[in-house]
Amino acid sequence: MKQSSQVVLITGCSSGFGLLTAIELAKKYHVIATMRNLDSRKEFDRLCGIHQVSMDLLELDVNDINTISNVVDVIESKYGYLDVLINNAGYLQLGFCCDIAIDELESQFQTNFFGCHRMIRSMIHLLSKSKQAKIINLSSVAGLSSIPFMGAYNGSKFALEGYSESLYYELKPKGIQVCLVEPGLYQTKILENLKIANNTGQNQSLFKESGDFILSILPSFKNRSSKDPLIVVRLLCSIVEKPRLRFRYLIGFTAQLRAVFRWSVPFSVYSYFVQLGFNLLLKKRFSK
Ligand SMILES: NC(=O)c1ccc[n+]([C@@H]2O[C@H](COP(=O)([O-])OP(=O)(O)OC[C@H]3O[C@@H](n4cnc5c(N)ncnc54)[C@H](OP(=O)(O)O)[C@@H]3O)[C@@H](O)[C@H]2O)c1
User: Fold this and answer.
1) 7-91+99-190+228-254, which class in CATH?
2) Between the N and C ends of the chain, which has fewer C-beta atoms within 10 Å?
3) Residue numbers of the chain with a pLDDT score lower than 50
4) Cα(90) to centroid of ligand 1, in Å?
5) How many angstroms separate the alpha carbon of residue 60 from the centre of ligand 1?
């Protein structure tokens, strides 16, 4: 028997924030954890065992409306309503903008942006039956300020930010709260799962040498330690708990610093430092 009758749906629970949040929330709430490939459930099963929690686990690919419809049917028949939708599924596409093929850019937007929209459109009737409905969209500090080599990801998260702001106003009168969670870099599988534009470092690329260099340093970047994902998980759990939400939850000191700097100085000053950092990184190529 769960302490709360609230029903929470989370996308992308095979790893990272989605998996850990599902485990934490299942201690109290009715959680519907979803993943696009149930063969990836090993870690999920292991953590459920360790924490002695149980929840529904369903297949859901945010790009496949049939899997989403199946989940709607299950929630409809089992609970009849949905209190919280956590749009977590996403991945990181890297590459110089001019190297990113249209299909690579489309895939990034399909998952990170259209995937959230598909989920919201499909779940809105179930959410409207709740008296305390919330939609929590996983954005990023990358949705507030851009850096080179991340144009596709930046674009998808900027889109999610603008969309969520409209949604916030539209759903407020209906009693459905919308918020954005904007983390900096945390130790999930995001770097392991990242995709790099196929054209990176290829002869036809305008940035062949820089691309080659970035590909050569990428393994050390992937291994670099970043912050404990449980910090974000705790924030997500507290948002589910809170009766009234803020619209933005920007989390992590460097993320906050980056966002404050982005918005408190003129773009000419901000861009000078981003460009300087990028030029210094590429310069390392010559001093190797
Ligand atoms: N970690 C960070 O530093 C960070 C910072 C800012 C924002 N975020 C955001 O946080 C969210 C979660 O990322 P994470 O850091 O936890 O990374 P992660 O460990 O790689 O988890 C991403 C999850 O999304 C799932 N996913 C990808 N494409 C999907 C699709 N089409 N349908 C359903 N699920 C899909 C993945 O499933 P598969 O295993 O099947 O690929 C995985 O379960 C993302 O939206 C990410 O942009 C992360």
Assistant:
1) alpha beta
2) N
3) none
4) 4
5) 13
Phi-psi domain of 122 (left: phi exceeds 0; alpha: psi -120 through 50; beta: other)? alpha
Give the pLDDT confidence score for residue 41 in this predicted structure. 98
Candidate list 29, 79, 91, 153, residue with the active-site label: 153
Q: Which residue has the tokens 């790893």?
A: 15
Tell me the C-alpha distance between 178 and 59, whole Å: 25
Task: Decide: 10 and 57 in contact? Cβ < 8 Å.
Answer: no
Query: Annotated catalytic, 153?
Result: yes
Please indicate whether residue 190, judged by its CB atom, sits closer than 6 Å to ligand 1.
Answer: yes
Domain boundary assignment for the chain: 7-91+99-190+228-254
Cβ of residue 14 lying under 6 Å from some atom of ligand 1 = yes
- pTM value is 0.96
